[in-house]
Structures are given as C-alpha cells and as structure tokens.
Specification:
It is a single chain. The chain is of the alpha/beta class. The protein is about 50% helix and about 15% strand. The chain is built from ten helices and eight strands. The protein has helices at about 20-35, 55-65, 80-90, 110-120, 140-155, 170-175, 185-195, 215-230, 235-260, 270-300; strands at about 5-10, 45-50, 70-75, 100, 125-130, 165-170, 200-205, 310-315. The protein has an eight-stranded mixed sheet with strand order 7-5-6-4-1-2-3-8, with helices on both faces. The chain is elongated. The chain starts with 5 loop residues before the first strand and ends with a strand. The model has no long low-confidence stretch (mean pLDDT about 90). Bound molecules: uridine-5'-diphosphate (UDP) and magnesium ion (MG). Magnesium ion binds near residues 103, 105, 107, 208 and 213. Magnesium ion binds next to loops.
Length: about 325
C-alpha cells in the first residue's frame, strides 16, 4: 500500500498563547511520521482560524511562510469549534487520504498519532482517541461530562464514551460525511452513524498548556443539548409517556371528584386543585420547551445556510 497523505486539522480560536508552542509539537510529530515512512511527504498541518480576535491568524500565516508543511485557512467569522473543525475536514478531504483532528491547546497527546495511523494501516477507517482518565479535569467537569455520556447512551445516541474530537478519519469516510448536510453539528455523534471499520486508542489528556478553555459551563450545556436534540427524538417520546401517565392519574382524579360531589363534600379541595394546576402547568411548560427546541432545530435546518465561509487561504 502506498504511504497515506495525512492532514492534521487544528481548529484555533484566540490561541496566540499556545499556538507557538503546540505548532512545533505538531510539526515534529509530522516530520517524525514522514521520516518513519509511515505517511507521505505531502502530509500537512492545516490550521483553521475560527475568527480569532487576537493575532492567531498572523501567527498561522507566519508558520505557513516558515515551513511548507504548515497551512491555514481563515473563516470569515467565529463559528464555533464544531463548524471550524468541519471546515478543516471538508477542505482537506480531496487533498489527503487521512485526517486527524486535534485541539491546538496541547491537551491531546500528539504521540497517540503513531498508533492512530497504525490502526488505519491495519484497516480502520475511523480511529477514536479516547482519554483514559479525567484526572486533569475539575470534579464538576468530570461529573457532568460522565453524566452526559451516560445520558447520551440512554437516549440511544451512539457516541464513544469519553471521546472528544481527537480522531482519525479517512477521506473515504469524509466523502460519505459530506452527505450529512445538517447545520446543527455534533461531530462526535455523527461519525459513529456513518459506519465503516472503527477502533479506539487510549491516551492521557493533559491540562491546557496556556490560555483558557472556550467551553465554560454554559457552552458545555449548549453542546450537550445540541448533541441530544440533533441525534435523538426520545425526549419528545418521553413527553408522550408523561402525557399518558398523567391521563391515567386524571381519570382517578375525575372519579375522586365525582365521588366527593355525590357525597356533597366538594367545598374542601382548594389545596388539591392548586397542586394539580401547578404540577400540570410545570409539565406543560417543560414539554413545550422540549418541543420548541426541536422546532428551533427544524427552523435552522430548513434555511440551509452555509456552515462556514472561508475568507483566506495560505495556500491558494
Ligand atoms: N475553538 C474554536 N472555536 C471556538 C472555540 C474553540 O475553534 O469558538 C477551538 C480551540 O481553539 C481549541 C478547541 O476548539 O483548539 C477546543 O477548545 P478548548 O480547548 O477551549 O475546549 P476544552 O478543551 O476546554 O473543552
Ligand atoms: Mg482544550
């Protein structure tokens, strides 16, 4: 088999503090893989500048001038991690045989790439990088993240437990992937849908080298809700179940009310009415909210807006 061309796809948003450090690590790894004759000389590191407000793009342009293995694309504005990654994957699809997506903050161990490429050469089309522990996370992040993966599994969404977006994907898979035209992206849940041979490799996730996380609790919740509503309709089904259960209860309520009316005991009962009204109003508002969440999704999907716009390339 001919040596594969590898593209390392790296989304970057306001990363001027880490980029000078991690770009060197990526290049070292790429050159080592080329020297080992594992991958082809034409392999590249593709940075996606996601509308950074600092000097990230200037740094990327400088890197591209300094070494031909570095390349960059600049999105027209900030679109978020998932869209930036998507842009990088789609842009590199026709230029390479395999892509590896990785964050640029040095949290994901580049040394896992050797094993990823080896797994590809052994026949896997998708190789998930799975972190083997969460020691470097805060207790809160650990708890919420693990809960999230468990909820996803309960909801019937196939995701690889504890796998973020450190992943090898072959261009064969990407060709199928571009047919998934949704604008609400949750990439780690979409790749398992595509199929093909896949495997996992394990690595230790470190702390961010510098800078701060772009995923505070609010954004993490957003990603989680998007992941669930993009890939599962079970929450709507649950509304039906809750509706069914409250219907059964209300039949009992009607019988009870009529019985009391017959016995002329209907004056008391203020508290029970208030309780029922409040309870039902709560359930109905939550149900409306869940349905609204899906309607919002449909609204965004039918508009078919482009998922990213590229303003500049370092190589075109
Ligand atoms: N990122 C991006 N666009 C954004 C937010 C983040 O491209 O709007 C990139 C960021 O530069 C990093 C990756 O996505 O390479 C993951 O972000 P971060 O490290 O902040 O998330 P965490 O690891 O804390 O979950
Ligand atoms: Mg990070």
């Amino acid at each position: 088999m001919e040596k594969p061309v590898l593209y390392i796809v790296v989304p970057c948003y306001n990363e001027e503090k880490v980029l000078p450090i991690t770009s060197k690590l990526f290049l070292k790894k790429l050159k080592q893989l080329i020297a080992d004759k594992t991958i082809a000389e034409g392999s590249r590191i593709l940075f996606v500048n996601d509308g950074s407000k600092d000097t990230t793009w200037e740094i990327i342009q400088g890197l591209a001038k300094s070494d031909s293995h570095y390349q960059g694309i600049c999105l027209s504005r900030n679109r978020g991690h998932q869209n930036a990654l998507l842009a990088g994957l789609i842009e590199s699809k026709d230029l390479c045989d395999i892509t590896i997506s990785i964050d640029c903050d040095g949290q994901d161990d580049v040394n896992a790439m050797d094993e990823m490429v080896k797994a590809y050469l052994n026949g896997a089309d998708i190789v998930y990088g799975v972190r083997n522990n969460r020691d470097t996370d805060t207790k809160f992040k650990k708890l919420t993240a693990e809960m999230f993966y468990k909820v996803m599994i309960k909801l019937g969404v196939e995701t690889v437990y504890n796998c973020a977006d450190y992943r090898l994907v072959s261009s064969r898979v990407l060709t199928e992937f571009v047919k998934y035209e949704e604008v609400n992206l949750f990439l780690r849940g979409m790749f398992p849908l595509i199929g093909f041979n896949s495997t996992c490799i394990y690595y230790k996730r470190e702390e961010r080298i510098a800078g701060t996380s772009h995923y505070p609790f609010r954004k993490m919740m957003g990603l989680a809700i998007n992941g669930i509503t993009s890939l599962s309709v079970k929450p709507i089904r649950w509304i039906t179940y809750i509706g069914g259960a409250s219907l059964v209860l209300s039949i009992w309520g009607i019988i009870w009310a009529m019985w009391n009316a017959i016995l002329n005991k209907t004056v008391s009962g203020w508290a029970s009415i208030i309780c029922i009204v409040c309870f039902m109003a709560g359930i109905q508002m939550v149900s409306l909210g869940i349905i609204g969440e899906y309607i919002g999704k449909i609204y965004l999907e039918v508009k078919r807006r482009p998922r990213y716009c590229i303003q500049e390339y370092t190589y075109k």
